[in-house]
Amino acid sequence: MFPIRRIIHGLICGVIFPAGLSVADRPNILLIFTDDQGYYDVSYNGLDDIETPALDALAEEGMRFDNFYANCPVCSPSRAALLTGRQQDLVGVQGVIRDLEDNSWGYWDPDTTSIATVLGKSGYETALVGKWHLGLEGPNIPNQRGFKYFKGFLGDMMDDYYHHRRHGHNFMRENGTVIDPEGHATDLFSQWAVDYIGQASKMAQPFFLYLAYNAPHSPIQPPQEWVDRVMKREPGIAEKRAKLVALVEHMDAGIGEVVQALKDNGIYRNTVIIFSSDNGGSLRFGSDNGPLRAGKGTVYEGGLRVPNFVVWKDRIPAGSMSHHTGMTMDIFPTILEICGAQWDGPIDGVSFAPVLHGKAVDVSQRAMIFSRREGGLAYNGKTIEAVRIGDFKLLQNYPFAPYELYHIAEDPYEKNDLLKGKSGNELNRVPQFSQLRSRLSQHFQERGRIPWQPPGSNAKR
């Protein structure tokens, strides 16, 4: 039986959210974040060559958000947005943070606050299992950014899923201790999450577990038996695609084990599960973004649209779908609202918690800004951007390319550039161009005030 005060609150809000309850009555939070899993690389979104039964079952038990966007088309910035509720470049993470100083394009501002810190101060146990990718040394390591427990990989991609190295360095840690475990990284992360859930289920406090997989990021290295299974089931499938599908399906099985651990420990019904990916699928490594244009690394829809759902058994209507347009940074304020946690610091994200109980949240006039800074010949340290307000999206997909404008509601696959053939004063006569360009210019001013390299780095000399 629920406490009577929870029932009364539920009658008022239309769903049983725990605002005003004691810490012990608040739900656990399991936040699952995958790496490079594109919008269509879950079977519930309609592709017939991939099977993700665990994710499908979860989506069927909660609410799917089919217009959900990553803040950035690459890893680190989206993770910064996730953990801070801010535009990633306004917290110093403009691009991928790497262990190579001359090719690292962000530094998480130590003065900003993570969701783990906020929830920890609100009485939550906080843990991260899996990929970090927001810094390799203090203060930007998990245990100094609000996570009481960390077991996983500090760096970006692994060069090998079995040896867990990057450029020859071992970035596997349990809190501050270097570890060198054996096994496929996906299996390790799944098992470590299962172990944590078993321990946390016995605690008096609720927990926030951020489970961040490396999969299905390259190298596309699933266990061979999973590849064999896909090849047998899908005759004629390309080997590259088969390996990507196998890597996703192997991860899906691990997620199923994590969910089963919640059930086995009797806490599934009081655990909110939020699932998403850090960016769109990588076409180069076999992702299928369906009709969406392009993929990871670009500010076209294929680089930004990601799968997303929220599950809370018996609190969120099972099998529901929402057309609400959300972003990675919206997850921060949504979790705080669900948990009844207080935070008076800056937040750029917009909570979609009301949507979970049937109410509308108007985001039609907010500026959704996507940006990425990168090196190499294509970028040379410059940035690419997109901004969407309402139905119109303005983008520059390469630093030296012209702007493009799309009416996303009518042209979701970005085939009809409304600026094509226009230049000079002709551009300014397109009202949407002027509005969106002006908003981007404002954002450039804002982010220019935020340092994005650590003090004393070569990049700043």
Describe the fold and architecture:
With about 450 residues, this protein is of the alpha/beta class. The chain has 2 domains: about 350 residues, Alkaline Phosphatase, subunit A (3-Layer(aba) Sandwich); about 90 residues, Arylsulfatase, C-terminal domain (2-Layer Sandwich). Helix content is about 25%, strand content about 20%. It is built from 12 helices and 16 strands. The strands form 3 sheets. It has a 10-stranded mixed β-sheet, sandwiched between helices. Strands 13-14-15-16 form a 4-stranded antiparallel β-sheet, covered by helices on one side. A hairpin with a 2-residue loop joins strand 7 and strand 8. The protein is globular and about 65 Å long. The protein starts with a helix and ends in a 14-residue tail after the last helix. About 50% of the residues are buried. The N terminus is likely disordered.
